[in-house]
Queue: 2 jobs
Job 1
Amino acid sequence: MTQPTITSDPDSDGIRLRIAGELVTQSLASVEDDFATYTPDSKNVVLDLTGIESLDTGGAWLVADLAHRVKNAGADVQFLGLTPAQSALIETVSHNIPDKPGSVPDRRSFVDWVASVGAKTVGAWKDTLSVLGFLGLTLHRLVRTIVMPWRLRRAALVSQMEETGFKAIPIVALMGFLIGVVLAFQGATQLKQFGAEIFVVELISISVLRELGILLTAIIVAGRSGSAFTASIGSMKVQEEIDAMRTLGLDPIEVLVIPRVVALLITLPILGFIADIAGLLGGGLMSWIDLGVSPGMFVTRLKENTGIWQLAIGMIKAPFFALVIGVIACWQAMQVKGSAQSVGQRTTASVVQSIFMVIMLDALFSIFFSVMGV
């Protein structure tokens, strides 16, 4: 490739700019600064393009922009040595160069900021009403399915249970085991200072059974299954499959939402129980290794000092977490607006909102059970 060059020579009528070489996009970097910094010192400028071997849109833009700036400086511009094709290309590009550079918008005022906050508040309120309406619609279809169980799509339910439950067991069990190990290790480090190492059993059992087991399981399910719900239903929305369902007389809530929500209602308590067992195993193993608390002593203290209510409290939360995750994920999917980018945005929003609502619900349950003295 012949590198482009630009040279300036005095002429009888003014200045002659000779441009030669292959003025194409791949080679413009070597002469871009020369074009951008050229300032005419004559009222007549001749652009001699006889030596140009090839010219594409990028090169034509450089030439057209140079001619435009020279004209704005008050000089006359003449082209020399252009082929008809090159002349047509430069003319086309010249017509699309703006007469004035784009202006930078002014900084937002305080009034604009207040208006933006107000608009976002109204949008959040509308979204809240929308998701509450979707929750009511889902509960209505759920109750109707309970009253008329033959309406439930069993094949879809089993498939969703496999995806949300069975395939999530390894990651949930590993998470629970590691949480138990961390609690035992950190608890032992602190309790050793007071000679109360034996109480690490109560620390592990109450923390895992009452709070961490089901909470972290719900967060994993929200990130894993909730995002999958939003992405799959959102893709169907983009491809207009949901509109086709309505045309065929099928209810998208009954066909798509109910099997997923019911699957979560069934599998999340089971996954939470698996996480609890794995957490106790991890905590017991670390207590044995680090503190010398034998498995027999661990089980004995677990039976004596950990009531069934500690496990029940965690299990009571599970259906509420499942309902929140399923409803938010499916509602976000229904808000997709006809593009793959919208699917990604709604999937992200689904995960964030589900995790936020799960943590908020957990906090409300903690306050409620504390007030009740449980």
Job 2
Amino acid sequence: MKCTKPRIAALLIAVLCIGQDVGKESRAAEPAPAPAATSRYAATIAPAERFEVDGVLVERHGSRGRPLILVPGLASGSWVWQDTIRAFAGEYTLYVLTLPGFDGRPAAGEQPFAAAQAAVQKLIAQRRLDKPVVIGHSLGGILGFALAEDQPQLLGGVVSIDGLPVFPGTEDFPPQQRTQQAATMRQRLANIPAGAFAAQQQGYMRTIGVLDMDKADELAKLTGRSDPASVGRYTADVLALDLRPGLKSIAAPVLVLAPYFDLDSQQQGLTEAAKLDYYRALLEGVPRLQVTGVAPARHFAMFDQPDKVRDAIRAFLRGL
């Protein structure tokens, strides 16, 4: 593991951070994305109910079965979960969230991750949700871990799509270095021009986000309508987090879906088995853990492999 770990970190360091400065050369040759309204992924399924909890937009789909709370990742909205809504709304009650600052929502406050966690806890209490399952992508998966640690009896399960309890590649950082990295990321996105942020989204989606370049450009139009400063604040919060000490307190079963694309990974000397081992190492301590690979796929695995992601979630839910 010693020889492989640095290579894994080099590949994964940008995964949780949509604002990360990746793909400079490819971005320079690409035009900024068009307005998000032109994206074919912008249309969403009309919910049965729409309301807010402390600035978090909640859209409810379905009205029976175990409650599922779907949390998108950085710079994403409910459009991430449209395939999931179609697949599960007939069997479950889905609460699909959009966090402040994302997808055109008003900007997030100074400590958005903690505020989002409190809002989800309030949603569960107000709606009297019995053992809901949090299904989160990236940042949303991290939020699921935080909720499961803070109140171990609150959740019935956690599904994390490429979200981990510590930012990959920073697991050995001392607290001061972690804080410095967080401050740098916050500052980087605090005053970035809209055009530059849109170009970052396109570069990210083409190199880290999804496999298909046309799809990447379409999805970048959607992530690009988020507030850059809010993205920076959430990213800073995530960089500063290390949830590993509390993993042993999680009572709910946990499923982590780990995307893998060989052409990205082989140049790093990274096999799918090595990546899964790395994820398991970062999740060590979770009492009931399942780590499953999804290939070929990049960070937004639900767009690259919708059937595999949907089937893995369905099997997990039926096993609860």
